[in-house]
Amino acid sequence: MSVRLKGVNELKLALRNKADMGAVKQIVKHNGSGLQARAQRNVPVKTGNLKRSIQLEISDGGLLAKSEATAEYAPYVEWGTRYMEAQPYMKPAFNEQKEQFRRDMNRLTK
Q1: Nearest to residue 43, comparing CAs of 34, 54, 33?
Q2: ∠27-29-33 over CA atoms, to 5°?
Q3: How far apart are CA 80 and CA 88, in angstroms?
Q4: Which DSSP helix (H) or strand (E) runs through 16?
Q5: Cα–Cα dist 55/3, whole Å
Q6: Which residues have a Cβ under 8 Å from the Cβ of 9 and sit 6 or more positions away?
Q7: For the CA atoms of 24, 20, 16, 102, what is the dihedral angle to 10 degrees?
Q8: Which residues pair with 68 in a beta bridge?
């Protein structure tokens, strides 16, 4: 799954002009952790392996948070198969968390 953000250059410029980069990094880390926690709450659990496989990685000097399920069968649960109905857990978590992230970043740039 790929996500494309619009207005990234404008956001970077606004952040450089108005925000402390330490505060930005804290927001990225906090929302990344929130995304991971939401996904772990949403995921269906049989053995717990899929839930435990949802990891968080912070990179790009603290400006990028990536949460993903690394279990081999994770995409099948998220999107389903012809034999099994989808049980989305990452996309709903992302959709919920992006609104919080947007509010947090807007607060910094005002």
Answers
A1: 54
A2: 115
A3: 8
A4: helix 8-18
A5: 18
A6: none
A7: 30
A8: 55
Question: If you ran DSSP here, which 8-state letter would residue 70 be given?
Answer: -
Q: If we measure between CA atoms, which residue out of 102, 99, 93 comes closest to residue 54?
A: 93
Straight-line distance from the first to the last Cα atom of the chain, in angstroms, rounded to the nearest whole number: 32
CA triplet 7, 9, 15: central angle to 5 degrees? 100
**pLDDT tens-digit readout, 63-72:** 899 999 999 9
pTM recorded for the entire structure:
0.79
Q: What is the pLDDT of residue 22?
A: 86
**Residue range 22-51: mean pLDDT, rounded:** 95
Strands in the chain per DSSP E: 54-59, 64-69
- Cα 16 from chain centroid? 23
Amino acid at 81: T
